[in-house]
């Protein structure tokens, strides 16, 4: 079982990067438990992201501070906490997106979505979350992404709707509310969100 609080997400990796190199790189920050690069089972290529688990949470935080945007084979690495910002997990303002037309094989785990959508802000509620068949655990071809503010959700929707992932253009819309034909993102929700106190994350 991965210790999520001591695990970081490493994105924008070149194909030349492998687990051994990541291990050697991040062990300089503190004791590493595991370095994993998800790979295509047929071609053995990876999608440019990895997970590095440290023994201690403070080493994971230190690695993000020191190594974020450091270039590896000419590409700046994008580092994030795997569990995202814990202080923002309860800030559900209604900035909830539905992401559809996902290739069930090409987008079989949340890593590539975390890299894409993480560029626009802090994601909450353990998202992105791919919806899966409860028996086979295979992707149903859509996912949910929640942010702690509407500005991030609007930016993600504007920039990522129609983007190609694994050869298919994804659809990004505000999700429907449970048991309702009304979507999230209404003016009333936005006004409520604007009145909420500013989080530590937004003050930085």
TrEMBL record:
Disordered: annotated segments: 185-204
InterPro entries: Nucleotide-bd_a/b_plait_sf, RBD_domain_sf, RRM_dom, SF3B4_RRM1, SF3B4_spliceosome_assoc
Keyword Methyltransferase: no
Compositionally biased tracts (Basic and acidic residues): 185-194
Main location: nucleus
Compartment(s): Nucleus
GO MF assignments: RNA binding
Name of this chain's protein: Predicted protein
Family: Belongs to the SF3B4 family.
One example of a Gene Ontology biological process annotation: positive regulation of mRNA splicing, via spliceosome
Taxonomic classification: Eukaryota, Discoba, Heterolobosea, Tetramitia, Eutetramitia
Domain RRM: start-end pairs: 6-84, 95-177
Keywords attached to this entry: Nucleus, Repeat, RNA-binding
Pfam families associated with the record: RRM_1 (PF00076)
Entry GO terms, CC: nucleolus; precatalytic spliceosome
